[in-house]
């Protein structure tokens, strides 16, 4: 089944001076369930814009996105909230953990919004933190964890509500290359073992090599040549 489809997706910005920047130009893309896809391309080529629109964090100027065959209605906030609660998990370059909450509390956090009972939240968060290799760091604050460990917590948090799709914007961008490789391997393992689809943006050719498919962007368009 196709998990993401975009049809003629465009995004432009118009500045006060009348200058128009085309961040995406009629992008047509299909990503199948279970795929691990990376977006690569030079700075400003549109990778984050495409990821944000697919993840319903931003609206297109024109064109359509389908998630699991259903057209996204960007004006319908309750359908967007339900996509964010149930279908899509996010991982960010800067980890974006809540600094006053422990690893366990950070992973429990998205489950509050799904009305998961407190005991189930703790059970699932423990399992997920174990899965990402942090079973012995449950009560640590983000400031007590390394960058790689913080990103592991963020991956566990992204998995909290059992999404079918994880979108990750430069997930290894703040990490040294060894730690980045371990994070890439962890995401690949979760993809293979749990069938969760991953779409990541990256500048790192090593990270891109772990993907099933590299989508190369240039000037807001998908470049036709193989990478
Ligand atoms: N909010 C915004 N307002 C105006 N222009 C924007 C905005 N967001 C992005 N752009 C422009 O859209 C284009 C695509 O930006 P985008 O962030 O998607 O690129 P990217 O490939 O992710 O870059 P990087 O690798 O540097 O993160 C760029 O020219 C950028 O300047």
TrEMBL record:
InterPro entries: AAA+_ATPase, ABC_transporter-like_ATP-bd, ABC_transporter-like_CS, ABC_transpr_LolD-like, MacB-like_ATP-bd, P-loop_NTPase. The keyword ATP-binding applies. Keywords: ATP-binding, Nucleotide-binding, Transport. GO terms for cellular component: membrane protein complex; plasma membrane. Signal peptide: none annotated. This is ABC transporter, ATP-binding protein. It comes from the Archaea. PANTHER family: ABC TRANSPORTER ABCH.1 (PTHR24220:SF86), IMPORT ATP-BINDING PROTEIN (PTHR24220). Pfam families: ABC_tran (PF00005). The lineage of its organism: Archaea, Methanobacteriati, Methanobacteriota, Stenosarchaea group, Methanomicrobia. Gene3D superfamilies: P-loop containing nucleotide triphosphate hydrolases (3.40.50.300). GO terms for molecular function: ATP binding; ATP hydrolysis activity; transmembrane transporter activity. Residues 4-227 form the ABC transporter domain.
